[in-house]
Amino acid sequence: NAGVTQTPKFRILKIGQSMTLQCTQDMNHNYMYWYRQDPGMGLKLIYYSVGAGITDKGEVPNGYNVSRSTTEDFPLRLELAAPSQTSVYFCASSYRSTGLDTEAFFGQGTRLTVV
Amino acid sequence: RKEVEQDPGPFNVPEGATVAFNCTYSNSASQSFFWYRQDCRKEPKLLMSVYSSGNEDGRFTAQLNRASQYISLLIRDSKLSDSATYLCAVTFSQAGTALIFGKGTTLSVSS
Q1: Min CA distance, A37 vs chain B (Å)?
Q2: CB contact under 8 A, A90 and B32
Q3: Which residues from A are below 8 Å from B when comparing CB atoms?
Q4: A19-25 vs B4-6, strand pairing mode
Q5: Which among A33, A41, A98 has CB closest to B32?
Q6: Residue A10: alpha-carbon gap to chain centroid
């Protein structure tokens, strides 16, 4: 029972490099989210998607891009990495956002360092 | 004003103590409310949803006060294993809106 799978778990990037953080869920969830968590801070929403083909900005979208071509996958793209993007990134999914079946399931996180 | 606010703590309590956390939200249209638990260097996991009438799960009790726009979490008879960060989260009533988290409150239970 895989749930939400994120890859890679760790990554070191140089300033200006680009990379894609992968996220896959096998629960047929409609909603998927990307959050970043800085030390001692809560989760800040980067982007989210309510279904395939639909994405929307969260609280801190600058410097990131997403796509949702399938229900299962929601990759996060960093085009020009900056030290301010050093963080732990969590992908999550849920069946709904309100009402029943709203529990969000998280991946194990990607620890990204930009140097 | 931030959408979801929590007292960051840390709360340091002895085993057996009762501890309460509050979380305020700014959007009166908020619809769904949750408490998540996050252990150090791990992903958050749902502790409990918060219902309008309040709900209890063992030693944990969650309350919602819509008039004052806050939710609370009460932990009775604290255990060492309760040491973690507790995050409140809310969604809004419009369809298609996302789950917004507070910064979290850190609890440390000592023997």
Answers
A1: 9
A2: no
A3: 31, 33, 35, 40-45, 48, 50, 54, 56, 58-59, 90, 92, 94, 97-99, 102-104, 106-109
A4: unpaired
A5: A98
A6: 14
Of the candidates B15, B3, B12, B21, the one whose C-alpha atom is nearest the C-alpha of residue B87 is: B21
The pLDDT value recorded for residue A1 is 67
Residue A58 near residue A66, CB atoms below 8 Å: no
Tokens of A78: 């960093």
Tens-digit pLDDT profile for residues A57-92: 998 999 999 999 999 999 999 999 999 999 999 999
At B103, list the tokens.
Answer: 């910064």
From the list B43, B91, B104, the residue facing A90 with the nearest CB is B43
Tens-place pLDDT, residues B34-77:
999 999 989 999 999 998 888 999 999 999 998 999 999 999 99
Cβ burial of A22 (10 Å; 0-12, 13-18, 19+) is: middle
Q: Yes or no: say if B43 and A110 are a contact pair by the CB < 8 Å rule.
A: no
- Give the pLDDT confidence score for residue A54 in this predicted structure: 94
- Give CA separation, A31 vs A25, A28, A107, B9, B96, in Å: 10, 9, 14, 31, 8
